[in-house]
């Protein structure tokens, strides 16, 4: 299948590994990935910060960049949720694409580590990803999935919320990190690098806390046969 | 304690929230209480097979009310008057307070007993009555606690949620006449309050209530409560004054069924509330002989004009959104500077009194848009969507405006965007080298990013952007 990648502005600039991992997984499964270079940002950041006009311009830009593509994938729950609410693009979060469209749960990865999964808010409540990401993770060889306490609690990121309401954001972040550390996992995985950079930025300050990782990167680790 | 207009934030939310966060006792009390109610609600909602269908129906009924507000108000008034009630129309808080004060004064009342009511909180009725020399006595246990403490409520349903039982015992010992208990068992404290209130009920000539629902078809008012104090207020005094927000209407009596199932499960996590009072007009020789209904607008018909924002008027004051909100749980109700705190307050207060009033404009930003509030709302108010709508229509800082349009300008053109990515990569190169041992993240950044790095490391631009990796691996032969 020919699949277009919407990598997102954040991943493009700061976390290219998530995009590379998405390409790696899909190509390993025998699909062709396209990367329309006219893409940049879906407009979510502008819309949620209160800037409707620039948000609309970026939504239209994304629509035209992906015109003619029947299947679009993105390794970001919140950006997919924004595009789904504001455009007619056929865009899927990675776990939706793999499970609902491609009917795959075992992507042939091996990751011999203890992992806990944080379901980010947009994936949880806007996209209703449910157990799709953890279904994929459970099929990874050697991976031990550990439940995160109070998984549905927001980490306190919320875009500019983290700056505008720094004290409340930090209080929420502390609770998320405490729960993450309680799992004893080596990695904390999630479907959004925005939330992960928030949680991960605090986890790196604690010596025994799990390391943040986008779950696509786990799925991209080679399996025994590759 | 702020004593401004009861639905205007007098302090910026971030400042008030940071102040409240410093109160470890408050955080402990709130965390425990909201978690308990949250879990109870989840259990009893899961029991109802047609919960989603019921939410849909309730939202549709409330939207019908907002569509036909004028006509339904006229129908309600005609039915209530035919049953013996007197109906008043109050355009705003001052108008409503004047009507109630005048009615109480006409009965030569020195005090009035009150049923817990958000509408009377919203208009600051207690303060208006006190100014006229009339003592308002709150008869809901939690409202009584708040009143005795000279405090303001911090939760719609559980106004004293920020107190624990030890603090309440100490308060009663200081402020409640005749209190001599040494135990802080909830049953003992409630028993003492019951004794105190019983004397007040028997002496009261005038009661003031709100209403959970007003039925246009029959002219009936409906009051849902847990403690039975409301039933006392509704039956003992000779004069009953109800202050009712115009959005409390339901078109038909038959509509009430869904709401009486949705409300208790959403608010207290009970299958059914202990007391539901439905009363219509006046019955000779039985109960109050004078029933005055004050229909309160106070900004509501204005909010009803906004096609998106008006869904906030569906609210039935269950407070499920407060109990699931991670921001409310940390900041507490007082940080919102309004009798309507939490997610619903963040969309209601700025709409009712305007974003330019006080620091109302900071309220739509008091949310991570996590969506937990929308999930639990029994009338399906899309609170995150309205928060974003208010952000987009409200005042914004000039510097931020410039930054956002510049960023959008850069992002709208692939050459500009690629150049920006490369510039960021090059600029960050020395920092990346310095921080490599720690995984390439930044521990301390200058303002405004210092708000971020105070609590978390900041990521640095990658050594190679995704699009450069793509070009290198997929486009160059």
TrEMBL record, chain A:
<dbReference type="GO" id="GO:0005829">
    <property type="term" value="C:cytosol"/>
</dbReference>
<feature type="domain" description="Cysteine-rich">
    <location>
        <begin position="3"/>
        <end position="84"/>
    </location>
</feature>
<feature type="domain" description="Cysteine-rich">
    <location>
        <begin position="115"/>
        <end position="199"/>
    </location>
</feature>
<dbReference type="Pfam" id="PF02754">
    <property type="entry name" value="CCG"/>
</dbReference>
<dbReference type="GO" id="GO:0016491">
    <property type="term" value="F:oxidoreductase activity"/>
</dbReference>
<protein>
    <submittedName>
        <fullName>Fe-S oxidoreductase</fullName>
    </submittedName>
</protein>
<dbReference type="InterPro" id="IPR004017">
    <property type="entry name" value="Cys_rich_dom"/>
</dbReference>
UniProtKB/TrEMBL annotation, chain B:
<keyword id="KW-0411">Iron-sulfur</keyword>
<dbReference type="InterPro" id="IPR024185">
    <property type="entry name" value="FTHF_cligase-like_sf"/>
</dbReference>
<dbReference type="InterPro" id="IPR037171">
    <property type="entry name" value="NagB/RpiA_transferase-like"/>
</dbReference>
<dbReference type="InterPro" id="IPR003741">
    <property type="entry name" value="LUD_dom"/>
</dbReference>
<feature type="domain" description="4Fe-4S ferredoxin-type">
    <location>
        <begin position="312"/>
        <end position="381"/>
    </location>
</feature>
<dbReference type="InterPro" id="IPR017900">
    <property type="entry name" value="4Fe4S_Fe_S_CS"/>
</dbReference>
<dbReference type="Pfam" id="PF13183">
    <property type="entry name" value="Fer4_8"/>
</dbReference>
<keyword id="KW-0249">Electron transport</keyword>
<keyword id="KW-0677">Repeat</keyword>
<protein>
    <submittedName>
        <fullName>Iron-sulfur cluster-binding protein</fullName>
    </submittedName>
</protein>
<dbReference type="InterPro" id="IPR024569">
    <property type="entry name" value="LutB_C"/>
</dbReference>
<feature type="domain" description="Lactate utilization protein B C-terminal">
    <location>
        <begin position="392"/>
        <end position="473"/>
    </location>
</feature>
<dbReference type="InterPro" id="IPR017896">
    <property type="entry name" value="4Fe4S_Fe-S-bd"/>
</dbReference>
<keyword id="KW-0004">4Fe-4S</keyword>
<dbReference type="InterPro" id="IPR004452">
    <property type="entry name" value="LutB/LldF"/>
</dbReference>
<keyword id="KW-0813">Transport</keyword>
<dbReference type="Pfam" id="PF02589">
    <property type="entry name" value="LUD_dom"/>
</dbReference>
<dbReference type="Pfam" id="PF11870">
    <property type="entry name" value="LutB_C"/>
</dbReference>
<dbReference type="InterPro" id="IPR009051">
    <property type="entry name" value="Helical_ferredxn"/>
</dbReference>
<feature type="domain" description="LUD">
    <location>
        <begin position="74"/>
        <end position="296"/>
    </location>
</feature>
<dbReference type="GO" id="GO:0051539">
    <property type="term" value="F:4 iron, 4 sulfur cluster binding"/>
</dbReference>
<dbReference type="GO" id="GO:0006089">
    <property type="term" value="P:lactate metabolic process"/>
</dbReference>
């Amino acid at each position: 299948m020919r699949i277009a990648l919407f990598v997102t502005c954040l991943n493009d600039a700061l976390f290219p590994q998530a995009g590379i991992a998405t390409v790696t997984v899909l190509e390993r499964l025998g699909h062709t990935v396209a990367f329309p270079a006219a893409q940049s940002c879906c407009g979510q950041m502008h819309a949620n910060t209160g800037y409707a006009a620039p948000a609309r311009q970026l939504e239209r830009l994304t629509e035209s960049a992906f015109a003619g593509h029947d299947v679009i994938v993105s390794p970001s729950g919140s950006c997919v949720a924004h595009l789904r609410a504001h455009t007619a693009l056929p865009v899927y979060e990675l776990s939706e694409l793999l499970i609902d469209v491609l009917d795959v749960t075992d992507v042939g990865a091996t990751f011999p580590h203890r992992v806990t999964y944080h379901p980010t808010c947009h994936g949880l409540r806007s996209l209703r990803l449910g157990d799709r990401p953890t279904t994929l993770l459970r099929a990874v060889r050697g991976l031990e999935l550990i439940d995160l306490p109070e998984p549905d609690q927001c980490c306190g990121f919320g875009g500019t919320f983290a700056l505008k309401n720094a004290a409340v954001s930090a209080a929420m972040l502390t609770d998320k990190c405490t729960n993450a550390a309680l799992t004893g996992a080596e990695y904390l995985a999630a479907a959004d690098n925005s939330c992960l950079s928030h949680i991960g930025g605090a986890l790196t300050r604690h010596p025994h806390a799990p390391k943040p990782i986008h779950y696509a990167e786990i799925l991209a680790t080679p399996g025994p046969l590759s | 304690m702020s004593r401004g207009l009861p639905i205007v934030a007098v302090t910026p939310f971030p400042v008030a929230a940071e102040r409240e966060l410093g109160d470890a006792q408050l955080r402990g009390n709130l965390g425990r209480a909201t978690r308990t109610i949250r879990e109870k609600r989840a259990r009893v909602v899961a029991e109802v097979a047609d919960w989603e269908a019921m939410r849909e129906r309730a939202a549709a009924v409330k939207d019908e009310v907002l569509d036909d507000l004028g006509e339904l108000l006229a129908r309600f008034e005609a039915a209530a008057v035919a049953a013996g009630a007197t109906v008043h129309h109050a355009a705003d808080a001052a108008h409503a307070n004047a009507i109630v004060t005048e009615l109480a004064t006409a009965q030569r009342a020195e005090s009035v007993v009150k049923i817990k009511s958000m509408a009377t909180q919203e208009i600051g009725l207690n303060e208006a009555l006190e100014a006229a020399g009339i003592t308002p006595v709150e008869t809901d246990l939690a409202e009584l606690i708040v009143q005795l403490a000279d405090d303001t409520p911090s939760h719609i349903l559980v106004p004293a949620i920020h107190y624990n039982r030890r603090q309440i015992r100490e308060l009663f010992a200081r402020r409640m006449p005749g209190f001599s208990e040494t135990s802080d068992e909830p049953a003992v404290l409630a028993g003492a309050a019951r004794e105190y209130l019983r004397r007040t009920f028997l002496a009261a000539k005038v009661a003031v209530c709100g209403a959970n629902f007003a039925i246009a078809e029959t002219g009936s008012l409906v009051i849902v409560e847990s403690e039975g104090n409301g039933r006392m207020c509704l039956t003992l005094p000779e004069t009953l004054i109800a202050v009712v927000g115009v959005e409390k209407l339901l078109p038909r009596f038959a509509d009430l069924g869904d709401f009486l199932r949705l409300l208790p499960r959403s608010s207290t996590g009970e299958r059914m509330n202990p007391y539901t009072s439905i009363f219509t007009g006046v019955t000779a020789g039985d109960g109050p002989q004078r029933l005055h209904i004050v229909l309160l607008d106070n900004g509501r018909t204005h909010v009803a004009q906004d096609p998106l924002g008006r869904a906030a008027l569906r609210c039935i004051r269950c407070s499920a959104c407060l109990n699931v909100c991670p921001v409310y749980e940390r900041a507490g109700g007082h940080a919102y500077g309004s009798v309507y705190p939490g997610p619903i307050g963040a969309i209601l207060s700025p709409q009712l009194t305007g974003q330019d009033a006080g620091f109302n404009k900071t309220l739509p930003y008091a949310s991570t848009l996590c969506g937990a509030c929308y999930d639990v709302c029994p009338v399906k108010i899309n609170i995150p969507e309205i928060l974003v709508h208010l952000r987009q229509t409200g005042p914004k800082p000039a510097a931020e405006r410039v930054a956002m349009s510049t960023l959008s300008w850069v992002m709208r053109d692939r050459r500009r965007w690629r150049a920006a990515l490369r510039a960021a990569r090059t600029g960050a190169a020395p920092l990346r080298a310095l921080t490599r041992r720690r995984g390439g993240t930044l521990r301390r950044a200058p303002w405004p990013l210092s708000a971020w790095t105070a609590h978390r490391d900041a990521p640095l631009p990658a050594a190679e952007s995704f699009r450069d990796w793509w070009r290198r691996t997929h486009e160059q032969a």
